[in-house]
């Protein structure tokens, strides 16, 4: 019955705010709006638009020929269209003092404006097994979502359902790869050699009171490394590159089918916005497209500045890991000393997660929008002047996603591709000069450069990804549901209770709209970019699922489970805890499709780099085919990787330690008689610590594999994209038949 409700405080008669409110409502009345006033602790104004507005909307968006036939021949417009048109008119109505609704909200003339939920429709959503937890595995009623929330939100849930469905396939493959890794734990020749290396003395991990240690101490860590770093991982990375392409191509086909059923395949956003502008003001002149190179340059510089800040934060996390490693190594607790590296990685991952949460809140805080303001307040968007809401949203999406990507992945990129690339023992001072001058150290030079675990950097990457992914998909979802639920409960308690009537008095009839308006007002507020937050969360998850999948095969499994919950969580929030979102028309998911395609290409590059640089897959293959017993033909009874560990370790003479090197007073039993040599993971000569020929062989093999993997994977992606048409033939034929019928 009422399209929108405007809420304001009760102002004094004759005050400036009261006069401004009256002018705005009078302007709506001139356009034929029906206005109903209800007074409680707040002042509520229900508005309903006249029917001529919707008739004009339908007539303008008809084909040119049908407009000439009968302009008065109209059909009822859907509720979602009514709300969208009224929303546009409310926020573009200009009273005599030239202050629009968003300006009046800033000045506290109005507090908020929102469309009302429909009671019967809410019950239908529950009956259709959507907005409740127990129906987590039921199919979504996309058609009902569209008729209640509009096409844009319906497409989001259709995309999320499609993504979750295909994640089920990827999760099965990922689980099989992970199980394969577990079954190969005890059979790995490399793990066996590490576990038996109880006489191999390794160099200290720092230069201040860090002890010598035995390679066999890392037995468990080595088994975990092989569980991830095996032949199956390489295959899975290739499969996921194909999966990402198939997912997007099949989604394009599914989307084309859905929007064709909605008669929106050839819908034009610009045409609809122009139509609503003409309805609101017949004398309106369309805003022209503009481009300013100066403004674009400012935006690029600001983006680069923000990226530099995020990289600086990633560097701070690296410094934390260095300091934590040193502190844990010198701890009084034996358990902490023995697991110093693992604890440093774990606590660093947890700190990275909280950094992501804080930075996300900070970035979204810059775009704190009043309910009606469609202009993002972000510093990076203020120099731009997009013509339409869709353009604003696209610009906003690209920039915020860029920041979120660097916030989430800068630390992972450092661990995967830079951490441990320099020498891992104290002789780096002899090889590369004074390490105090290097960027990885501080002036006091208390620590060696940041290192991976002796079993390899891929285990560190696995721990980092597993920790962040699990925290994001448990703690974050818990908070995402709990905060609006508690807020809703608290607001519900503040609802005025109905007073009991005194005996003999007649009960005053209460307006039937009052309680429903109040209950809608007490729901959590939404803004035009609320759906953006949901999309961003899922696209970041998609990035975790594809870009570093070679280091964490279980990512699709966790994402699949999370999405089953996420669909119901978003549904419950929208139906029960939030005010009704303004329905928006759309025929695709917008700029997010291009973002997903870019992530697919990054996934190929990222996984190729992980396998080539981070993993030990290439060094083991080089050893297997050039230096192993199988290659030399000395023994066919031995495993082809026999002797790999000894071959991959270099020797360092303890007399070459730097003068400031300090060993702990209490040395392990095996080192009390004195240690003249220790081992470290590198390919260097024992005499002058220069690179061996083996180092260059491995380097060439890594580079060759990277080029081959990326070219093959990208070729497969492009062939798959060509092989699967974006639009089904049935949709093309349907559109062709419609055009033919129209011409006849």
From TrEMBL:
Family indicated by similarity: Belongs to the anoctamin family.
Transmembrane segments: 153-182, 233-251, 297-320, 340-359, 396-419, 542-565, 586-613
Location(s), subcellular: Cell membrane; Membrane
The protein's name in its UniProt record: Anoctamin
Pfam family, one: Anoctamin
Organism: Tinamus guttatus (White-throated tinamou)
GO (cellular component) term, any one: plasma membrane
Keywords assigned: Cell membrane, Glycoprotein, Membrane, Transmembrane, Transmembrane helix
């Amino acid at each position: 019955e009422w399209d929108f409700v405007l809420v304001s405080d009760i102002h004094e008669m004759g005050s400036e705010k009261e006069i401004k409110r009256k002018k705005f409502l009078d302007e709506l009345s001139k356009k034929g709006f029906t206005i109903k006033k209800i007074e409680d602790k707040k002042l509520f104004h229900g508005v309903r638009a006249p029917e001529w507005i919707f008739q004009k909307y339908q007539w303008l968006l008809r084909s040119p020929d049908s407009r000439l036939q009968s302009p008065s021949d109209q059909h009822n417009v859907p509720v979602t269209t009514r709300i969208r048109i009224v929303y546009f008119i409310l926020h573009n109505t200009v009273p005599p003092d030239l202050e629009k609704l968003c300006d009046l909200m800033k000045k506290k003339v109005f507090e908020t404006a929102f469309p009302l939920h429909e009671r019967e429709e809410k019950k239908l959503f529950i009956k259709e097994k959507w907005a409740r937890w127990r129906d987590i595995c039921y199919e979504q009623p996309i058609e009902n979502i569209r008729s209640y929330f509009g096409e844009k939100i319906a497409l989001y849930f259709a995309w999320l359902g499609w993504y979750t469905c295909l994640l089920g396939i990827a999760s099965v493959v990922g689980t099989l790869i992970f199980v394969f890794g577990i079954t190969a734990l005890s059979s790995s020749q490399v793990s066996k050699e590490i576990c038996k290396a109880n006489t191999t003395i390794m160099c200290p991990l720092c230069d201040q009171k860090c002890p010598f240690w035995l390679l066999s101490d890392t037995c468990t860590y080595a088994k975990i490394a092989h569980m991830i770093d095996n032949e199956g991982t390489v295959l899975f990375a290739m499969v996921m590159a194909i999966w990402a392409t198939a997912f997007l191509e099949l989604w394009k086909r599914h989307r084309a089918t859905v929007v064709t059923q909605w008669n929106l395949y050839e819908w034009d956003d610009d045409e609809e916005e122009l139509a609503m502008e003409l309805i609101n003001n017949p004398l309106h002149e369309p805003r022209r497209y503009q481009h300013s190179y100066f403004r674009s340059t400012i935006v690029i510089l600001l983006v680069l500045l923000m990226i530099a800040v995020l990289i600086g934060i990633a560097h701070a996390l690296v410094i934390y890991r260095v300091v934590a490693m040193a502190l844990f190594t010198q701890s009084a607790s034996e358990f902490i000393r023995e697991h110093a590296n693992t604890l440093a990685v774990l606590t660093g991952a947890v700190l990275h997660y909280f950094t992501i949460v804080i930075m996300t809140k900070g970035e979204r805080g810059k775009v704190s929008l009043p309910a009606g303001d469609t202009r993002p307040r972000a510093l990076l968007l203020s120099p731009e002047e997009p013509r339409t809401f869709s353009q604003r949203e696209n610009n906003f999406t690209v920039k915020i996603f860029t920041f979120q990507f660097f916030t989430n992945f800068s630390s992972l990129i450092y661990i995967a591709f830079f951490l441990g690339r320099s020498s891992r023992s104290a002789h780096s001072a002899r090889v590369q000069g004074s390490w105090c001058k290097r960027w990885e150290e501080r002036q006091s030079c208390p620590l060696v450069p940041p290192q991976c675990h002796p079993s390899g950097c891929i285990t560190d990457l696995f721990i980092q990804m597993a920790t962040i992914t699990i925290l994001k998909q448990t703690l974050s979802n818990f908070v995402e549901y709990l905060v609006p639920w508690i807020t809703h409960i608290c607001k519900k308690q503040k609802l005025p209770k109905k007073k009991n009537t005194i005996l003999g008095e007649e009960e005053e009839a209460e307006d039937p709209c009052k309680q429903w308006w109040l209950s809608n007002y007490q729901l959590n507020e939404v803004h035009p970019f609320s759906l953006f937050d949901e999309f961003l969360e899922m696209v970041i998850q998609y990035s975790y699922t594809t870009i570093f999948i070679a280091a964490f095969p279980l990512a699709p499994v966790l994402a699949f489970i999370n999405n089953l919950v996420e669909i119901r969580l978003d549904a419950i929030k929208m139906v029960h805890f939030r005010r009704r979102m303004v329905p928006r028309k759309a025929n695709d998911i917008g700029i997010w499709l291009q973002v997903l395609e870019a992530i697919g290409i990054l996934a190929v590059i990222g996984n190729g780099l992980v396998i080539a640089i981070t993993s030990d897959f290439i060094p083991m293959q080089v050893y297997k085919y050039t230096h192993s017993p199988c290659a030399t033909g000395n023994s066919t009874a031995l495993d082809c990787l026999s002797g790999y560990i000894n071959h991959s370790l270099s020797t360092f003479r303890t007399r070459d330690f730097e003068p400031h090197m300090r060993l702990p007073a209490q040395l392990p039993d095996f080192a009390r008689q004195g240690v003249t040599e220790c081992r470290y993971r590198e390919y260097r000569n024992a005499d002058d610590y220069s690179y061996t020929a083996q180092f260059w062989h491995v380097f060439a093999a890594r580079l060759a594999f990277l080029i081959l993997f990326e070219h093959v994977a990208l070729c497969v992606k492009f062939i798959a994209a060509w092989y699967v048409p974006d639009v089904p033939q049935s949709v093309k034929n349907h559109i062709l038949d419609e055009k033919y019928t129209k011409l006849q």
